[in-house]
Automatic annotation (TrEMBL):
Signal peptide: none annotated. PANTHER family: KINESIN FAMILY MEMBER 20B, KINESIN-LIKE PROTEIN KIF11. This is Kinesin motor domain-containing protein. The lineage of its organism: Eukaryota, Metazoa, Chordata, Craniata, Vertebrata. Belongs to the TRAFAC class myosin-kinesin ATPase superfamily. Kinesin family. The keyword Transmembrane does not apply. Keywords: ATP-binding, Coiled coil, Cytoplasm, Cytoskeleton, Motor protein, Nucleotide-binding, Phosphoprotein. ATP binds at G96, V97, T98, N99, A100, G101, K102, T103.
Length: 178
């Protein structure tokens, strides 16, 4: 099992509030030191000899605040995804406190897609020409497939075209409104 740490950069608000940037110190590519913030309950307790103000943690790899979404994907998820597509089990999840950057890491932005959009794009690239191009099969219930006759295929194509046309119209209208 691999465990990765991604340290997010400070926000503009945190920087303007002079937040203590020495709380998280990346020692090397696998070790991080957490220092209790000055004035915190942990720091006050350690000054009284109760507990510690410094903790070290080890990870498979640590990614600093300058790490891009592409670098993170390439160095963490890509090999697991490849193994998964070859039939092996895999689990990827994000864990952390509120505002730690989990949503950004997983979803990203349109300009910097996160793990999930990159996995989906890579999956469809992987399956490429193996995709079934016909429209004579339709999912049925949970695990079933229903064969469609010629008239049903014609109806499915018509429905698909109508949905795409309405989406295109909706997007065009809303782009003009903006």
């Amino acid at each position: 099992m691999s465990v990765y740490l991604r340290v997010r950069p400070f926000s503009k608000e945190e920087l303007s509030n002079n937040e203590d940037q020495a709380c998280v110190v990346i020692e090397n590519s696998q070790t991080v030191t957490l220092n209790a913030p000055k004035g915190s309950a942990t720091m006050k307790s350690s000054e009284k000899g109760i507990g510690m103000s410094l903790h070290k943690f080890s990870f498979s790899q640590i990614f600093g605040p300058d790490t891009t979404q592409a670098e993170l994907f390439e160095n963490t998820v890509k090999s697991q995804m490849s193994d998964f597509l070859d039939g092996k089990n895999a689990l990827i999840f994000s864990y952390g406190v509120t505002n730690a950057g989990k949503t950004f890491t997983i979803q990203g932005t349109p300009k910097e897609p996160g793990i999930l959009p990159r996995v989906l794009e890579s999956t469809f690239q992987y399956i490429g020409e193996h995709q079934y191009q016909g429209m004579d099969l339709k999912p049925y219930l949970r695990n079933g497939v229903q064969s469609l006759d010629f008239d049903q295929v014609k109806q499915e194509r018509s429905t698909k075209a109508a949905i795409f046309a309405s989406i295109k119209e909706y997007i065009s209208y809303h782009l003009l409104v903006i």
